[in-house]
Write a structure and sequence with these properties.
Strands 4-3-2-5-1-6-7-8 form an 8-stranded mixed sheet, sandwiched between helices. It has a 6-stranded mixed sheet with strand order 12-13-17-14-15-16, with helices on both faces. The chain has a 3-stranded antiparallel sheet with strand order 9-10-11, covered by helices on one side. The protein is about 40% helix and about 15% strand. About 50% of the residues are buried. It starts with 6 loop residues before the first helix and ends with a helix. By secondary structure, the chain is an alpha/beta fold.
Amino acid sequence: MDAPRTPEEALRFFQALNPSGIKLGLERVRDALASLDHPERDYPALHVAGTNGKGSTCAFVARALEAAGHRVGLYTSPHLVRVNERIRVRGEDIPDDVFGQRILEVLERYPSALTDPMTYFEFGTVVALWHFSRERVDVAVLETGLGGRLDATTAANPVVTCVTPVSFDHMEYLGHTLREIAGEKAGIFKAGVPVVLSKQEPEALDSLVRRAEQLGVPVRLEGRDFGIVPGSNDTLSYRGADWSLDGITLALRGPYQRQNAAVALACLEALQARGVAVSPEAAREGLATARWPGRLEELARGPTVVVDGAHNPAGVAVLLEALRALYAGRPLHLVFGVVADKDRGPMMRALFPLAASVHLTPLDTPRSLAPERYIAEARVLCSRVVAHASLEEALAGARADAVGRPDGLVLATGSLFLVGAVKRLVDRSLGAMQQQQ
């Protein structure tokens, strides 16, 4: 493979890597970081694993650290619209020219990436860790891709780790029991480095605590060591190992964000104890101003269009709780797309009977499951199901159905691929409307 010579060519090189490729193992990432003189050691990090809630937790923590005056690097995945979203410093996506330059710098120091290409996620992780070093961040917040034990981000150097709720997802890689999946998530634990654990199913919790004990890892456990409860005047109250906070408000919507906020506050307490200065006031500001697109996000009105990244049964369960709290009684018109390797049955059985109509769509990924493959299953669960050839058709169909019913709500869910595509479509249509005005 020819080496890219310009930032533009470097971005094309990166985008040509297989975005769905998965190689479990840390050897390539560790070799690359060694060639770069270990940039991951230049700053303390919070490392977050789990099945659901990772991104929101990371967003809360990063925003609070910024409110405390820190220069913060945030690495998350997947992106919704542009890959630049994955790598942020001080809340800003990495610019194209800087992104391309960082790729060139990594390839110059680690040319093996040209002859033995890394996966998209591996290479992106290395570029992120390198970029954070070059930008001299004070602290980094890192979200795992999947699992933990063999995830590329596990080559980082955390001072605190965290595991959000563990449930069934990526079973072909992580195992078919909660005990096995939690054991893979526990792979981010480092000897002596404290971990924050959300409430877990007993089987998952047992696996996580057992591994923590083996490594001598101090544990902060939700419900035992910290928690968040309703306060007065629609606010929340937090009680943790070090902080007692009242009058908390959350920028992110949905009842499930309360747990993510509690876990984020416990992570901030742990970071403070490990020398990353952050005050309760900054933590409060972070929770009140954090942004995390694609999670119960309203994109348009007339009719209301909402996107949510729920893509497994546990994610759908918390989504339904949020719909009951925020949109009770409104006719629901689903735009639904799913990748072939997901456990679609429980998601469909939870969502489809509640819908007035379901519009099945293909996704823009080789992993997409064609609507024709599961339309028969869908029609058992909802009386009006339509399979569409494109997302544009599916979204238009759901909107047309919603307009015909009072207070109709369009909800696009089932995959983060779908959420990103809907955001692009809505942004384009809004832009076209503005140009016509």
